[in-house]
Amino acid sequence: METVANAVHLPPLDNPHEREAVGIELEVTLQELIDLSLIGKQLHWSVVGPGARSVHLFLDELVGQWRELADVVAERAVTLGFVPDGQAGAVSKGYRVEPVPVHSTADHVVLWELARRVAGVAERIRERLVPIGAADLVTQDVLVDVVRTLEKQQWLLRTQLAEKV
């Protein structure tokens, strides 16, 4: 039930159902970013090969960026009055990002596998941009920043893959 205190302090959206729908889309995005960060750490621990050290360090940077993006996305949801679930159970139930095998993985394979997953997440978020924008341009802007960051990361992953060829 919306109280006067809640209504006064929530950003205006024309339709209360839009608030819920936008919140759910933000929650999906949050869970994908958390999933990417967990996969990034798994690959971070299992990378082997001549470029393992540089890939290992790069993965730490990426994981940190995904965690920061997840925080921005979650805070936008809360700002709208929607509390997203970013707990392990919710993330594993959503299972949107393909898991990686748990074994030692060559540095170039790590880069390739991660690039595929980052691209998939960026594409799914892109699909949300128009519907989100119709409901809330500020939230759309948050997601545009997420896509911008993920696509830059794709480029950096591609450049490292090109060096391996």
Automatic annotation (TrEMBL):
Residues 27-162 form the Ferritin/DPS domain. InterPro entries: DPS_DNA-bd (IPR002177), DPS_DNA-bd_CS (IPR023188), Ferritin-like (IPR012347), Ferritin-like_SF (IPR009078), Ferritin_DPS_dom (IPR008331). Pfam families: Ferritin. Gene3D superfamilies: 1.20.1260.10. It comes from the Bacteria. Belongs to the Dps family. PANTHER family: DNA PROTECTION DURING STARVATION PROTEIN 1, GENERAL STRESS PROTEIN 20U. This is DNA starvation/stationary phase protection protein. It comes from Kribbella speibonae.
